Amino acid sequence: MALGASSKTYAVNLEVLKLELTETWNYVSRPVCVLMTTFALSTVAIAEDLTIAFSAPPTTIDPHAVSSAPSNSAGRHIFDSLINRGGNAENLPQLAISWTPLDSTHWEFQLREGVTFHDGTTFDSEDVVASLNRVANMPGKAFDPYTRTIKNVEATGPYTVVVETYSADPLILNSLSRLRIISAEFANSGSDAFDQGEAVIGTGPFKFVSYRPGDEINMERNDDYFAGPASWENLSIRIITDNGARLAALLAGDVDLIEALPAEGQVRVAESPNHEVMRGQSTRVIYLAPDMFNDASPQITDNDGNALSENPLRDIRVRQALRKSINRDAIVERIMSGNATVAHQWVAEGFMGNSPGVEEVEYDPEGAKELLAEAGYPDGFRMQINGPTGRYENDSQVLQAVGQMFSSIGVDTTVIVQPWSVFGPAYPNHVFSVYLASWGINTGEVTNPTLAIAVTTDAEAGTGRYNGGGISDPQIDALMEQALQELDDDKRKAQMQEISELIFNNSYLFPLHYESVALGARKGLSYEPRSDKYTLAYDIKPAE
Amino acid sequence: MIIPILRRVLQAAGVILAMTLIVFVGVNVIGNPVDILINPDLNQLERDEVVRSLGLDLPLWKQYLTFLSGILEGNFGDSFVYGTSAIKLILLRLPATLELAVVALLIALLVGLPLGLYAGLYPERASSRVIMSGSILGFSLPSFWFGLMLILLFSVNLGWLPSGGRGETRTLWGIEWSCLTLDGLQHLILPAINLALFKVSMVLRLTRAGVKEIMPLDYIKFARSKGLSEKRVIFVHMFKNLLVPVVTIVGLEFGTLIAFAVVTESIFAWPGTGRLIIESINLLDRPVIVAYLMMMVSMFVFLNLLVDISYTYLDPRITFGSKDK
């Protein structure tokens, strides 16, 4: 396991080395560069084409087979949904122009008329029924979290559809925003037909041209798009997973915009006269989870290495003390290079379930020591903390910093990082005393992360699957049960706020920060980065 | 000739079988691919169904037997991630890697051999010393750094060559090739140079050492005293003997060019098998890992065979098969 840590350190050093060498090289090459630019013409031209670089590969063009961010993001260029999910997780009309709940389990959707598919056929309710049935029956089950509450979909007219749910489902609009509508003609086509291109017929802003797995996807503008044609005649999505290569492609002018601008490249891009950094806040929250499950926590001993009779993390004062020892401003500023925002709860202000009643825990090492002493640990104890490496931005560096901060208040902390393939499957199993994990809150509201992380684990019901800290609070469980059935937004909001307060005022979890979305782009483009980190070329416009 | 080849094939089959067993057990020890692959919002029932559909609910030995029986039918399993045939996935990407490796090898030979000959024949000249010092750089520069420097100089600062990707391709025999279009060739230059750098130095040094070893030998003196032209002495009498070690190394190194093009492929966003295997290992995509390794083992065995056969043509004293006894 130590191997994981050391190899990561090595990788980190290489990154630093790369950067330093790059800087040196800039210094040396600048005169050459100046010379060359006097001969070369400026590459900034009014282009009708757009090339963007994804940081992770869409693994299929079938919009119903895989629900990963890159696949969904690529799919949204070609296919529309009933509901359009806005950049801040709001539900907007797309192929549906309006919707009304008929009763608690029936929703009626009015469809947009006059929309045509890329092959010229007309879009109507049959396509919706066929698409929603296909996605629910895919063997990979990728979209089950969004289809599982849907009991039946019925076309009640050429442009009306009624969706029936098993029980009241307040998240149905969010779910439908994730299910893409394909042409009914291809409802029985397998994923191969999509990957080879013949079935890739949607209503979206771009038409499919070609796909080379792991390399690039090419598209052309759909001039008949119902919301108006895109600004770009040809769109090329290239997949460049290596950070340095993606940055170089941007600086070399090979691509117009890159996703996931690496933190160490942001200065370079910001200083470049032809490029700029685009920032937005994501709904991905990074947190630490303390083990309250085990009677004696597996990785905690006293200062001499002897087992403790009780689990100190069950004492709220100890948890508070640990939280107070973490200087999150420093983490955000130095380790994340400003590429994150300090988090106090699941979601930031403006998202559903954010509560002003959640106390913000400030950095206070003295107060932390007092709390520890009060809890009966004036000399602290020994603890191991764990996390993945290479999964989240600077994950292992963040964890190392946290380790040092814990140590500074007397909790002698060892840091262990592991590759995701090892850490990921292990952390829900209550084997760690404190671990770093993260959740991308794709619904933009509180029930989604709570259901997975902060309700009592129940394998049958599938709740609390990632509750490695063993949170089990009957109040939270009861509130969740209500919130998951509540169709009244105001009531739901109040329930969710209470949930937020219960989780974070009890320090069941230690939120660290929300990752930012950082994009690098050539000058002359305007785009608002989305909280779900999707990059959508339709919303990229030439700057005025 | 036939029997030793058959023996090699049998050996290879044994190695492959052992390798698949190791990979199966190894991947299983690391973790469960399902935990990495599936949407974390799935509940237990849905998760179980995915596990079943991937065949991961069976005990490991049963999974292994299913896999073996699949191979007998020519089915190497479907990728967990891409959902399509693992072997197809690899074959789709192999041309890109092969193309890159062949061009890199050509560069290594076209640059390394003449320079090595020159440095060996005229070791005292200042230019030879420069060549030899330069080759040390070739050995010691890490390829990720050299690659980034190439990109920085030729793409970012000078803007002469693209920074990555395969560029425009043309289809020949149902396979896409970059080397058939001008744009593709431009994309190929930098990664090929980066991949070739180490091999150039190696071929250069091998050649030089060979020249210095062979030139003082009696048969060279005899050839010269026979009054043969220097050209004939060097390019016929010496060159063939020189080639024996070079062919061995180059043949074996071609395998490593393909198998370890990972760094170059990542830096230049080259969509080859190296990137595929790294991504597959990170996602524990076992069918792809197994299929890839099987292919690599077979390739190494085949290359070894090819090297042995070519020996017999270069040096008639060596007979194929005899050294196995």
Could you walk me through the main structural features you see in this protein, from its secondary elements to its overall organization?
The complex is a heterodimer of chains A (544) and B (325). Chain A is of the alpha+beta class and 544 residues long. In chain A, 32% of the residues lie in helices and 22% in strands. Chain A contains 16 helices and 20 strands. In chain A, strand 8 (206-212) and strand 9 form a beta hairpin. In chain A, helix 9 packs antiparallel against helix 11. In chain B, a hairpin with a 2-residue loop joins strand 1 (170-172) and strand 2 (175-177). Chain B is globular and about 85 Å long. In chain B, helix 7 crosses helix 8 and helix 12 runs antiparallel to helix 13 (286-314). Chain B has helices spanning 2-30, 33-37, 44-53, 60-72, 86-121, 126-140, 143-157, 182-214, 218-225, 230-259, 262-267, 273-282, 286-314; strands at 170-172, 175-177. Chain B has 13 helices and 2 strands, in the order H-H-H-H-H-H-H-E-E-H-H-H-H-H-H. With 325 residues, chain B is mainly α. The chains are: A alpha+beta (544), B mainly alpha (325). The interface between A and B is large, with 65 and 55 residues.
Look at the helices and sheets of chain B and give the structural class: mainly alpha
Mean pLDDT of chain B: 80
Query: What value does the average pLDDT of chain A take?
Result: 85
Q: Note the beta-strand portion of chain A.
A: 15-25%
Gyration radius from CA atoms of chain B, angstroms: 24 Å
Question: Level of helix content of chain B?
Answer: over 70%
- The coarse silhouette of chain A is globular
What is the C-alpha radius of gyration of chain A, as a whole number of Å?
25 Å
